[in-house]
Structures are given as C-alpha cells and as structure tokens.
Design a protein that fits this description.
80% helix, 21 helices, Growth Hormone, Chain: A, mainly alpha
Amino acid sequence: MHFSLKVGLEIKQQEAEEKKETTYNIGYTIVSLAQLGSAIGSLVAGPFADKYGRKITIIMADIFFTIGAVIMGVAPTIAILIVGRFLVGLGVGIAAMVVPVYLSEAAPTSIRGSLVTFNCLFITGGQFISYLICIALGNRWRWMLGLAATPAVIQLIGMLFMPETPVFLYKKGKKEIADKTLTRLYKPQYLEQKKMEVQKEVQSVLIESRDPFLTQIKALFTIYTRCIVLGAGLQFWQQFCGINTVMYFGPDILQKSGFGDESDPSSLLVASLPLAGMNALGTLIAIFYIDKLGRRYILIRMVPFIGFSLLIISLGLGLKGFGDELERDAGKWVSLTGILLYLAFFSISLGCTPWTINSEIYPLHLRGAGNSVSTTTNWVSNYLVSQFFLIVTKTTAGQVATFIAIALCCGFAWIFIYYLCPETKGKPIEQIVDELCPHAKNKSEEKQDLNSDQAHTQD
C-alpha cells in the first residue's frame, strides 16, 4: 500500500507541476499517519476484545480496513486519502493485536507457535502478492488502494462462520458453547485434557477479569512486570532492529544503490519483488522450526546474523556513495545481498517470534491489556524509526551511519533476549506465566481472598 500511495502521489505531483501548481510530497506523512492509527487501534482493541470477544474484534478490524480502503480508492483529494489511510491503520492495529491472541487461545499447545507464525506468513505472503498486483495495475493507483478491501471482506465473511475462542467463552460463563467449540476444534483424545487446562486457567483469574482496563494496566506493571517488559521489549527491538526501515524504504535503498528507473516509481516494485519474496520464504521456514527448536533458541542464534546483514547494507551504501566507478558498481550488489540476507534472518526470527511469545506470556485476565500495550509499543516504535530514517538518510554518510546504528541495536536486542526471554515452546500458558512471575500467583490469591471478604462484609 505504501508503494501504491507513492505512485499515486507522484502522479498527482506531476499533474500539479504541469499546471504550474505548488504541491508537497506527503507520501511518508500518510504512511506515518497509518502507523499512528495502528497504535491507537491496537491500544483500544485490548479492552474491547476482553469485553466483547476476540471474534467480534477481528470483524471490527475488517470493517475499518474495508471502509478505509474504499475511501482511499475513490478519494478526490489528499485530505480524504489521509482519512482512509488512518482508518486502514486502525484496522491493521486492531488485527495485529487480536489475531495472535485468537490463534493462541484456540490452538493446541504443541502447534501454538506454528499457528501464530502462519498469521505472519499470510502477512508477508500477502505483501508479495500485492507487489505482483501493483505491477500488473501499473499507474492505476486507485485500483491498487481500493482492491485492498477485497481480502478484508473475504476475512469478514469467513469470521462469521468461525467460533469464539473456548477460553473467552468459559471466562464469560458460556460453558455449553465453549464445550461445543472445543469439540469442534480438538480430536477426542486431546479434548478432555484441553478442557481441563482451559477451565483451570479461567477459574484462577475469574475475579481479576472484572477489573477495569486501567487497573489491568497497573497490574501488568506492578505484578506481572517481567511479562510486560518481555512482551513490549520484544516488539520494541523488532522495530529498532530495522525491519520496517528496510520494508518501507527498501525501494529507495535499491534506487540509491542503482536499481530501478528514478523517473518511473512503479519500476521500483519490480526491483523490490526479491525483498517481499525473501521475507515470505523466511516466514515459511519459521513455521516448520518454531515449535521444534523453540522461540528463544531461534532468536539467540539469528539476531547476530541480522546485525551482520545490516553492516553489509551499510558497506554497500558506502561503496556506492564514496567509491570509484568500479566500487560503486560493486556497492549496489553488496547492498542488495545485505538486504536479502537481512530479510532471510529477520523473517525466521524477529519477524514472527515476538508475536508468538506475546500471545503466550500473559494471564487470561490481562491477555487483552498485555497485547494492547505490546502491540502499541510496536507501532509507536515503528513510527519513531521511520521518522528518524527520513531525517538522517538524506546523505550517503547518514545512510551508512543509520544502518550501523541499527546493527548496534541488534546487539542490545540479543542481550535483552539472552537475559529476559525464557523458552516457551510446548508449555501451557499458565505455566509460562508462573515461571516468568512466580510471585504473582500469591498476590492474585491475596486479592481473591480480599474480594471475597469484601463480598461477605457487604452481605
């Protein structure tokens, strides 16, 4: 969508120049507004999902996305385009927060990581398909934007036939419907065990689940501190290790490296196809290994290679900007190699594991709040990184320094993961929470006793 916006805005720029009008290239501003919309959407999605359900929240995201895409496709002015883009951002933020929760609560423990990673695969695979569609459409940018409503409509219709998660149904006291949902999702040999796990988890947090959202946020930072620090920290480092810098501005990096026709912005889509393809391929590989090797195992081993790839990108940009003719020619290939390696290592590790880990480290009564805070952290970090990139990469020296700085961030991310991130594969969510915050269970029991005493006093 970023690229179709850029094509459309540059066409408008050319039209305005022909009419001797003054206009501004605000493509990146529109992208930033979408990021802020996503931050707001992910923040409000948590309490909404806890009150009304995961399923209805996903449907709400589809509605926002559909309306926003249609508005962008028919927008008569840039102001209307911005409104549509903001609505799409809200939908993306809501979906980014609630879909991993929905999948993790419905999935068997043994394949929970793979199922959540499938969500990431459909995102990266969708990016690749969108590149192909945009190439086929050429400069018809309205079609590029308007057609984005199609997958949202398809998902909305599909969600009408999908069940609510058993965990949420038990939490709301709808035991009969929850039992039927479990029967629909699980084979008979696993049914009773899963039912006992879910009911035990729900019973342990039944009183706390009635707390207002701000009280839940306070509990996250006072009782379940390590859970929220780990979840939000992983999302922070995912962005500060540069993924959206590479994906949003990859075509510009390639253009600065000598690929693509500067006079034809749509030609950059063709040059960027390998980026989207590598991103999707790495995510596909992660599906097969995230539940076999484990989340921590993959992160510890892949993050150093992400940093190394960023240094290769920096080297390529330096050769292109400061070298002689032979070095400049070599620099563009070095940059391309670095970008492809970066996307391969990133998509296998930091691309999907933060979402998986965030879906399994919060207790039920704080799952919406925890994922809201961590997903909002992701989008705010995304916004800050993209704005910083725009400021400092106007010169070759700025480009080289930026990617060196992001490589250093990978070093800090590795230290964070090594000391704070436990292995979560194959463990029930309740066990993971107990291991991360062993003192929280005692505080929870104390609160239940206090609430019980207060209820007796009122009687």
